[in-house]
Amino acid sequence: MEGLGLLPGQTPNGYLGTGVSGDGSRVVGWGTTNRGFSAEAFLWEGGAMVGLGSLAPAGNSTAWGISADGMTIVGESASLSGDQAYRWHNGAMQGLGFIGAFGIDEDVSSIAQGVSDDGEVVVGSSTSADAFREAFRWQDGAMSGLGDLPGGDDSSWAFGASADGSIIVGWGTTDAGQEAFVWDASHGMRNLRSVLVDAGLDLSGWTLFEASDVSDDGTVIVGDGYQPGRQLRSIPRGYSGAGVADVPHDHRACLFRPAHTASPHGRRKKARLRASSTRSTPRSMKPNMPMSVGTLSCSAK
Known about the structure:
Blueprint: E1 15-20, E2 26-32, E3 39-45, E4 48-51, E5 61-66, E6 72-77, E7 84-89, E8 92-97, E9 110-115, E10 121-126, E11 134-139, E12 142-145, E13 156-161, E14 168-174, E15 177-184, E16 188-191, H1 192-198, E17 207-214, E18 220-228, E19 238-246, E20 252-257, E21 292-293, E22 295-300
Parallel strand pairs: 19-21
Antiparallel strand pairs: 1-2, 2-3, 3-4, 5-6, 6-7, 7-8, 9-10, 10-11, 11-12, 13-14, 14-15, 15-16, 17-18, 18-19, 20-22
């Protein structure tokens, strides 16, 4: 393990690494600065850490993802229009705006948390005219809302994208609460649990809260789920934890394996360390529930 150091001229008040390039040569994250509780996004490369600045003078910024080629960084920054998603490329930070048009005095915000391998597609969440919070896909200078799952309170959040940006994962809301989604242009936003059940997987009692990332080819998804009445090791009241799900294609059967038999197959080559924004609220439905690891895997029939 190698310490990454500090931002120039700053003291060790707290740092978080959140992403790494495909070859491991570039790391991004954010650290607190000497300006009190403010934070600045950083890029680490070749043993040196540099700050990325912000969209507003002396404003906060955080980095939440980096493209596989290491050339594009995404995150959230203070701006004159409110906290705003950004895309950093070739030394310049670009604000991505918001879903819809808002007045200058309105309380709006957006955050970018995932990016395609080439940095051309960015995903995250934004204030929206049509929803309390809406997942977005940004490409070619335009931010598009992805909608929400049927029911619920019109809130959704995107965390990860496949290599080409065509498959997006995150969470939305239904009348049952927060649930994981998978999105593509042909089908729109779909409930991940429903997709897996329709493919023949027995998920009786399971709630899949959040899909947090997806493999380069879009067939493997990682996230959090919960099943009441199931115990693992010392966890009472249920099994709650991170897992891996192969998205079914054609004729595939899926199977859940508890943590002690889990294998690391299907892990995304980026091996990102994703940390949810404090705005994302996902764990509120199951407060203080311990987390464990398992895998949902599929194999061709």
